[in-house]
């Protein structure tokens, strides 16, 4: 029996890779393994569910059984991979070995957890997958006051969504502005004003230190001495690529599982894709780079080695209270922000020393400029030059 391509993870990365493989080859054996129930869903939709009044069942698009039939694949749900053994080309599910032809690690990233004092530290809800969303949605029934820890992209999206869903929202974060790693101050202020106009309240420059139960409610003690009463707490303080099993197996690990432009890890026949992967030094937790990786890796796995490349990759943030599109400059890009506009309509351009556009942040009406600006941006990860094979002269 031919060993299958084994994909660990059934999120956007795992399922989209399986779909792409099936487009190119209808018969190659595929085995997908997931620790959850294997439902297909779009993770970006998790921060729009309350505004659309959708529960977890409504956000799910297909069951694991339906996906198995669609992909002509075996899908093992509620199954934990406990060890990788690259030298033997197998993984372990407890005491059960599974041999693979090629292994693709697509198990994503995990939420960061903030240690809190108090007797309600276990009442904090991270929302990183459909099961998390389902648990939070159930806990939110009949409740009204939500405290969000974190004012990054995800925290702001949830603030907007929960307000549209009718909840009172308080956002607590240590930085003095929203999305500090993503935006300069002016567009960050525009987004804050939009969310405040919607009714969200922000408590910046501080953190939650303690969380206690008060009857059926919760009380959050902030580092600056203030106390906020709430019914639910959402943690949106960031994600960290899952790397532990990979490191234990001897794979090279940096921020994520280190892979080259063909998404190859340091072990033969082992690849990494999506949020858990660090591609040529880049760990980008967005859909566009994931899909570029899916298309390249499917061809590589089927015998046509293909390097991944990323063009300009703007991110549309789901804050309809103040529309926002951002294309952050590379971390090492030397330059300066040039900002124009006022109120909700801000155009911030990040220009290099030569005046060339390296990134932007657009809010409000300025988002209409994104297509024209995208044409001026450099690629995030440029295509590698083609190697020409020259015939020897006679």
Mind explaining what this structure looks like?
- The chain is α/β, with parallel strands linked by helices and 394 residues long.
- The protein has nine helices and 25 strands.
- The strands form seven sheets. The chain has a five-stranded parallel sheet, with helices on one face.
- The protein is globular.
- Residues 387-394 have low confidence and may be disordered.
Write the layout of secondary structure elements.
Blueprint: E1 5-8, H1 12-24, E2 30-33, H2 56-59, H3 64-71, E3 74-76, E4 83-85, E5 90-93, E6 96-99, E7 102-105, E8 109-111, E9 124-126, H4 130-140, E10 145-149, H5 153-164, E11 168-173, H6 185-198, E12 201-204, E13 208-214, E14 217-222, E15 227-230, E16 232-235, E17 239-241, H7 244-248, E18 257-259, E19 270-272, E20 277-279, H8 287-301, E21 315-317, E22 324-327, E23 336-342, E24 345-351, E25 357-363, H9 370-374
Parallel strand pairs: 1-2, 1-7, 2-3, 7-19, 9-16, 10-11, 10-16, 11-12, 18-20
Antiparallel strand pairs: 4-5, 5-6, 8-17, 13-14, 14-15, 21-22, 22-25, 23-24, 24-25
Helix pairs in contact: 1-8
List keywords for this structure.
five-stranded parallel β-sheet, alpha/beta, 394 residues
Q: Radius of gyration from the CA trace?
A: 23 Å
Tell how many strands the DSSP assignment holds. Answer: 25
Shape: globular
Q: Kindly, what is the distance between the CA atoms of the first and last residues, rounded to a whole number of angstroms? A: 48 Å
Q: Give the number of helices.
A: 9
Strand content: 25-35%
Main structural class: alpha/beta
Q: Mean of residue pLDDT?
A: 95
* Helical residue percent band: 10-25%
Low-confidence stretches: 387-394
